[in-house]
Every structure is written in C-alpha cells, then in structure tokens.
Specification:
alpha/beta; 8-stranded antiparallel beta sheet; 6-stranded antiparallel beta sheet; about 35% helix; binds fructose -6-phosphate
Length: about 600
C-alpha cells in the first residue's frame, strides 16, 4: 500500500526523504507528496502531485527549501481518487501540522462530521484528513505535545494505520504510530528515520527498531522514544538489517523484476543454507507437533499458489491432511480450527492484511502458527509461534518472483521435516530429497541460460486477447501462477486450468491462434501422457501450444526445455519460463513492469 518516510537529522531532508520514497514507490504510485518545516511556527512547505513520484520530483528544483527534517508519502488510493488534492501530506487548517497515512480509517465519516461541526474545514475526500484535524485539536489540548496527542488520536481511530506527523513549532520532531500496518525506525548517527520498510533507509543505516501494535514513536535527531497508548515507555527491540544496500538497486537490469528473476538461484541457495543435510532438526522448534491433526495454509495471490504446491508435498511426505485457503475468505466462513490445527501463513511482506487477519482468527481459536515469511520483524512472523524465513532478499518489483520460488522451497523443507516427524518417509529419502533441493540453484541457472528464444516467441503473441495455462498435479498451481503473472503485468486475459478440467468447459475458450502454455515438466510420467492428450485437444481446435518440459513434446508447436527433477520439485523450474513470458509480454505491450497499474506490493487493507 502506501509508502511512508520520515527523516530528522543533519542532512538536508529533501534528499533522504525523496530517496526513501523512490525505494518505497513499489508500495503505491498514484500520487506522492512531501512536507518540510521552513521556520518555527511558520506554515509547512508542502508539495504534492498526482501520478508517480517523478511528477513530484519535476516540480522540485534548486529553490526547494533546505531543512533538516521532513516527511514524504507515496500513495495507493483507497478513499478519494488519486488527485493532487487527495495526495498526502494532509494539513491542519493552520498549515503547520502535516500528516501522512497508510491504511484505512473506518470511522472517518463520523469523525469528519464531528470535526466539521467544530469548524474544521476539509479540502480532500480522504479518510486521512479527519485524522490531521483530530490530531491538531488533541495537540492543543496537550499543550503542544505531539506524541501525547498521537496517543489520544490512535485510541479514537478504528481501522488500520501507519501515521507520521510533523509540526512546525517543533520542527526536529516526527511522531509516528502504527496499528496493523508497518512502520520501522532506522537508527542513525545524529539522524533518525521512520519508514514503512527498511529499504527506505538501508543506505544510511543498518540498525532498525521494531514497533509493536498500537505503539507511538517520537524521534528527534538524537532521541527515539517508544510508548504504548497509555504513555508507558517501552524498551526498544533493535535488530540489524542483513540486506545489502545493493539488493535494493536495479544493478544494470532494465527492471527490478528481471533482476529478481535472475536472483532466483541465489535466493534458493540462501534459503537452503543451514536447513538441509542434517541441519533441519530445529525447523519447527516452538511448535508442539505431537498434537497436530490438520494443517491449514493461508495466503494470498502468488503466496497462495506456493501453498497449493505445498499441499501436494506436505501431504505426500507427512501423511498429514493439508487444506489451502485464500486468506481473504478464511475467517468469514467460520472454519473448523482448534489447537490440533497448525496454521501456516505464507507471506513475502509479512504485512498482508487478509493473511494477518486470517491468522489472528485461527490463533484466537487455539491454533498454533508457523509462518513462512521473507521480511524480518514484520507483523506476521512477530505474531507467530515459529517462523521459517525465506531468504529471498528485498523484492522490489510488485510482481513476486524470487519470493515465490523461495516459498516453494519452504514448503518442501516443511514437508520433509514433518514427514520425518510422522515417520512416513525414511531418513534416506529425506537425504535424497535434500540433495535434489541442493541441485535446484544450478538447474534454475540452466533454465535462465536458455530462455532467450522464449522472449522472441512471447512477442509473437503480444496482440493476443487471451493466453491459457494448463497443468496437472503440481503443474496446476504452476499454471495458475503463470496466469496471474501475465494478468498483472501484461494486462492480458489469462487463466490457469487443471488439464483434466478442460473438457468440462474451458476448452470452449480455444480459438484459432489462442496461445496455450502447457506445463508438463517430466515427460516420462503418466501425468505428462495425460497432458499430451490435452495438448492434442487444444491444438485440434486451433491453439498454438508452448510446452514447458524436460523432453520432446511432439504435439506442441514450441517446447521450452527445463532440466529434470523430482516431480514435486518441478514448479521451481517450470515457473521460471512463465515469469519470463509475463515479463516479456509486459515489455512488448509497453507496460510498466515494476509498477503495474492498480497494484501495490504490500496489501495492508482487507
Ligand atoms: C503477485 C503478488 C501478490 C502477492 C500477494 C501476497 O505477483 O505479488 O499476489 O503474492 O499480495 O503478498 P504477501 O506474500 O506479501 O503476503
């Protein structure tokens, strides 16, 4: 959702704030704004523009004010369209207090009428503006104490939020708060940062502080005070950011997505370190496995597809029943869940609201939570009983690639670990599978070395109105993932089907020239034979078939070869060409690859 940055310190604030916004633009990019104090008690200098950050940057020049503090925002609109007026920061009526917000304030209508009745004048259609007026009144009631005012305001708000505020009477101070939405503190030397994500300040400091639910943070260049809403001072939880600053740069690639596709071999290798060949004994420490009767994986979007693959592996290897649920649906159907249920939330960001809420629901019914997450210190792992971190590094492109592939690896690690626990698989089998896993980085590298012809081929279909993806067994969730990638990046209609379902309806979609991607990784299997029949069926009706396979597929028009691996591991190799198809199609259609329309990376609203 929105990206938030605050800076107070020794530098001119414009530079670190804009740099932070640039790194957070993946979170939302339909408008951007910045507020900077230009003199004690003076109205703040505010610049905001609809559109991408570039629009805002174009309005800034050498005459923009130099100041040692400031806040900035890049928006993904919820309440109020993406216009200049609705862009953040929002101001109080004196123009001295500025506020930026990520999330949704559910009771903003009632707050707005109350504040309008008191004489506050509103200029936008946003939920956020109610908060700045409320904060302005609360600050006056607290004799200018912005942190105390923030605590009062948070207590009155319903919904989810990260808030940052600055007032020109006390220009070095920035006050933030969070509930169900991310906010981290960057600890510098004579300077401090607040941001939605560590990427915003990673080039300045690697020291970060976690903020808990309903906590308020008050920073100046030399102090950081964290309190709960009652005003009690809380001890800071500091951690070191392990990501290298260069991980958040494009490094010569034309897009972050392409860079992240090419980082997949390393991401897999890093995720396996210390977790295979005898080092996996502690994977689930913190979880009481003895009483688990059922596993429920909850996730959204691409992470959901990783969960679907996980179901095949975990059930087969552990003998435990696994359900996979869309997080957004889970808690609204009163699912059967108790302390014999192990919930596995999968989330790259660790902040996805649907996943977080589903997990909290299960937890409140006694379930144990073992999350899979890529973001240290984020809310989902913090509220879990145990965590398996994927080591994909920062994923900046909105479309998930390397995070997905490491989520698959996490599923295999969990399946093998649980299989040993239940005794369904032998130690020899586990060792064999660990060896297979260890070979995946090289095999993904091989796929990447041979995808060039696929890029040319993809361009042939750039004007197609639709593309279909077929697969069976773990090839089915792989096909779903291929279709999702294409939809979000190429804005092209795409669907993934189980090969066997074709004849039950979807085959009617096939027309002369319809491109169909058939995921059929291991040719010598029964499933590949069945898929070959499906390929014949669609080809007979005019489809152009691109098969993803480790061998010859005579019925297909084109074959993209991938190396062989164990059947359950094939999505790791088969998904790579699908990512390349989506990437190339987006480029061919002139779309913004890293920031596709209407999307945001971390979806912190329900
Ligand atoms: C698609 C994509 C999304 C995310 C989904 C969950 O490319 O990135 O579908 O997978 O929004 O996000 P996380 O994993 O952060 O919970």
């Amino acid at each position: 959702m929105c990206g938030i940055v605050g800076y107070t310190g020794k530098s001119s604030a414009l530079t670190p704030v804009l740099e932070g916004l640039r790194r957070l633009e993946y979170r939302g990019y339909d408008s951007a704004g910045i507020a900077i104090p230009v003199g004690i008690g003076q109205p703040l200098w505010v610049e905001k523009r609809a559109g991408k950050l570039g629009n805002l940057e174009q309005t800034l020049d050498g005459t923009s004010p130099q100041s040692h503090s400031g806040i900035g925002h890049t928006r993904w609109a919820t309440h109020g369209g993406p216009t200049d007026r609705n862009a953040h920061p929002h101001l109080d009526n004196e123009g001295k207090l500025a506020l930026i917000h990520n999330g949704i304030i559910e009771n903003y209508v009632e707050l707005r009428s109350e504040l309008e009745a008191k004489g506050h004048h509103f200029v936008s259609e946003t939920d956020t503006e109610s908060v700045v007026h409320l904060l302005s009144d609360a600050r006056k009631a607290h004799d200018g104490d912005l942190a105390a005012a923030m605590r009062d305001v948070c207590a009155r708000l319903r919904g989810s939020f990260t808030l940052l505020a600055i007032h020109s009477d006390d220009p070095d101070r920035i006050v933030g708060a969070r509930r169900n939405s991310p906010l981290v503190v960057g600890v510098g030397d004579g300077e401090n940062f607040l941001a939605s994500d560590v990427a915003a300040f990673i080039t300045h400091t690697k020291r970060a502080l976690e903020l808990g639910q309903d906590e308020v943070v008050d920073i100046t260049p030399t102090s950081i005070v964290i309190t709960n809403l009652a005003g009690d001072v809380l001890p800071p939880h500091e951690y070191e950011i392990s990501w290298d600053a260069s991980a958040a740069e494009r490094g010569g690639f034309s897009h972050f997505m392409l860079k992240e596709i090419y980082e997949q071999p390393k991401a897999i290798a890093d995720t396996l370190i210390g977790r295979i060949n005898g080092f996996d004994a502690h994977l689930t420490s913190g979880i009481d496995l003895a009483h688990i009767k059922k596993i429920v994986i909850i996730a959204a979007g691409t992470a959901f597809h990783a969960g679907l693959v996980g179901k095949y592996a975990i059930e087969q290897w552990s003998g435990l029943a696994v359900e996979v649920e869309l997080a957004s649906e889970y808690r609204y159907r009163e699912p059967i869940v108790d302390r014999t249920t192990l919930i596995i939330p999968i989330s790259q960001s660790g902040e996805t609201m649907d996943t977080l809420m589903a997990m909290r629901y299960a937890k409140s019914h006694g379930a144990q939570i073992f999350s899979v997450c890529n973001t240290n210190g984020s809310t989902i792992p913090r509220e879990s009983d145990a965590v398996l971190y994927t080591i994909a590094g920062p994923e900046i492109a909105v479309a998930s690639t390397k995070a997905f592939i490491t989520q698959l690896i996490a599923m295999y690690l969990i399946g093998l670990h649980l299989g040993q626990f239940t005794g369904v698989i032998t130690a020899e089998f586990v060792a064999q599978m660990h060896d297979e896993l260890a070979e995946l980085p090289d095999k993904v590298e091989q796929v990447l070395e041979t995808v060039e012809p696929l890029r040319t081929l993809t361009r042939q279909f750039k004007d197609s109105s639709s593309m279909l993806f077929l697969g069976r067994h773990v090839g089915f969730p792989t096909a779903l993932e291929g279709a999702l990638k294409l939809k979000e990046l190429a804005y092209m209609h795409a669907e993934g089907f189980a090969g066997g379902e074709l004849k039950h309806g979807p085959i009617a979609l096939i027309d002369i020239g319809t491109p169909v991607v058939a995921v059929m990784p291991n040719v010598d299997t029964l499933l590949a034979e069945k898929m070959a029949s499906n390929v014949q069926e669609v080809k007979a009706r005019g489809a152009v078939v691109i098969a993803i396979s480790n061998g010859e597929v005579p019925a297909a028009n084109h074959v993209i070869r991938i190396p062989s691996t164990h059947d359950l591991l094939t999505p790791v190799l088969a998904v790579v060409p699908l990512q390349v198809i989506a990437y190339e199609m987006a480029v061919a259609r002139g779309n913004d690859v890293d920031q596709p329309r209407n999307l945001a990376k971390s979806v912190t609203v329900e």
